[in-house]
Write a structure and sequence with these properties.
Elements (H helix, E strand, L loop, with lengths): L11 E4 L5 H10 L3 E5 L10 H8 L7 E6 L4 H11 L3 E4 L5 H4 L6 E8 L2 E3 L11 E6 L24 E3 L8 H8 L3 E4 L13 H13 L1
Parallel strand pairs: 1-2, 1-9, 2-3, 3-4, 4-5, 5-7, 7-8, 8-9
Antiparallel strand pairs: 5-6
Length: 213
């Protein structure tokens, strides 16, 4: 008799907008797969390359370090990526498919969803990236708004999907059940009153909700 085993694919978790070493170490201890660092000055979670480098140098191995950029030049992205020690590049602006193809590191392309339409670029144009991140559309910001969108409008894509936008411990299990994404990405949903400062109880509750699914 041949015994078959079913491979269980656990949803990956990325905690984004890390600005403090204590938060980074707590996230790793609790079981986060990846940490995100925002290199976009208008963001309240913006961090300098030197600050991010100092945090990353104190992380244990096997933690994925992701750098978030918005319409930055390729030279700036390469310089920060090398200096800080990033593993993955996340592009959250209006970057073209051709722009995304030029980096040695894996690239995540963020696309914003508005009333059932992908804005501004259709995901099939980004077939060379490692994954697409789906976030809620806003005229005021390129992400981190804390708003959700209609998860039922997400089509089946051939590439991995990272789900973002308004996720928190109370709704992430429902989101995973509906979308079945490769990963979920959260920032404000695991914070207290101050943006960029993570709440360890909410981080733990978020991870518990993900694992419960």
């Amino acid at each position: 008799m041949t015994k078959t085993t079913e491979v269980i694919k656990a949803t990956k978790v990325k905690f984004c907008g890390i600005t403090r070493l204590d938060d980074a170490l707590a996230a790793v201890r609790l079981g986060a797969d990846a940490l995100g660092f925002v290199f976009y000055e208008p963001s309240p979670r913006n961090i300098s390359p030197e600050q991010a480098r100092a945090i990353i140098r104190q992380l244990p191995p096997f933690v994925t370090k992701v750098g978030l950029f918005v319409n930055a030049s390729d030279d700036v992205i390469r310089s920060i990526t090398e200096h800080v020690g990033l593993d993955v590049i996340q592009l959250h602006g209006d970057e073209s498919p051709e722009f995304c193809e030029q980096f040695q590191q894996p690239v995540i392309k963020a696309l914003r969803v508005n009333e059932g339409a992908f804005i501004p670029q259709p995901p099939e144009h980004y077939d060379s990236v490692s994954a697409v991140l789906l976030d809620a559309y806003s005229q005021r910001a390129y992400g981190g708004t804390g708003h959700t969108f209609d998860w039922s409008v997400i089509p089946r894509l051939s590439m991995p999907i990272i789900l973002a936008g308004g996720l928190h411990p109370e709704n992430v299990a429902q989101a995973i059940a509906l979308v079945k994404p490769y990963a979920v990405d959260v920032s404000g949903g695991i914070e207290g009153e101050t943006k960029g400062c993570k709440d360890q109880q909410r981080m733990q509750a978020f991870l518990k909700a993900v694992r419960s699914y």
